[in-house]
Design brief:
This protein is mainly alpha-helical. It has helices at residues 2-29, 54-72, 78-104, 112-129, 158-179, 185-206, 223-244, 253-270, 277-280, 282-300, 312-318, 323-351, and strands at residues 145-147, 151-155.
Length: 352
Amino acid sequence: MREILIAGGLALFISLFGTPVLIKILLRRGYGQFIRDDGPSSHHTKRGTPTMGGIIIIFSVIAGYLVAHLISGNTISISAILIIGLVLAIGLLGFLDDYMKISRQNSGGISGKQKIFGQVLAASIFGYLGLKFADKDGFTPLSLQLSTVRDTSITLSVIAVVIWIAFMVTATSNGVNLTDGLDGLATGAAVMTFIAYVLIGVWEFGQSCAVVATSNCYQVRDPLDLAVLSAAFAGSCTGFLWWNASPAKIFMGDTGSLALGAALAGIAASLRIQLLLIPLGGLFVIITLSVAMQVIYFKATGGKRLFKMAPLHHHFELMGWGQVTVVLRFWIIAGLCVAMGLGLFYADWVVG
């Protein structure tokens, strides 16, 4: 538990006090956000706000996690190493996209196909390596079993697992990216989900089959260390939110949003709660579905729109809701979704 507090607290401290330093560096270099002309007119005032804040988020997470282990003397788990590798790879992809947008001064970064390919490639490598490195009990970072709130009896082939993990990571990273359209919206929602991961990881460790041999115990590799990593993400996002809240002094950019989505999917898969990610990340799911529904409806009706604008938060902006109102109400939805996910997790343990 001390390691969780150290990782979360240190990541928060570095992010909180490191972000203004990054803001000055980005402003000096002119790395400001490009704002699309077809978006809400109120967003034009954000033009030039520093972006690529995901750099400090990722750095804070890694620093907080590593220092916590240095202080505690505990071994770094292979599960966490693989997730950090995934986050770095996807974060680098987002950084390239951000840099190209800034250098070109338009919204055209790397192409959609290139971005998807990079996400799928990084996630596939993560999925394949996750089935290696068995511990003394034979547990690997990822499982061949499809998981809901825990591993089920449905066994997948190695290829199927790799494809499934690639889909999870790609869908979640793009979902967070779509949600990151208002000041603090995606950051605040991510904090709630990472805190839920901390609780789940601690619970799985306490009810591990190696500790309590009961019918509803958990067979998960490194759950406590995954809780430490989740705490570092929660702390880092909280510190960043101080500067990202309205009016935002910095945006996380694709560097941060894609990386956070990859972390959410990677940790969910490693904790054996793959499908529980749907309610735990419910806001990201809702916003992603709004985009899909808009596109389908537009094509099916020959050009009519289901929403005034997608993603969904822009629809409510155009209806006259203030940006802060939209963010707060969507945070409430995110909190309710996280509470439902935790309720489902606990109910499964109670029922056994």
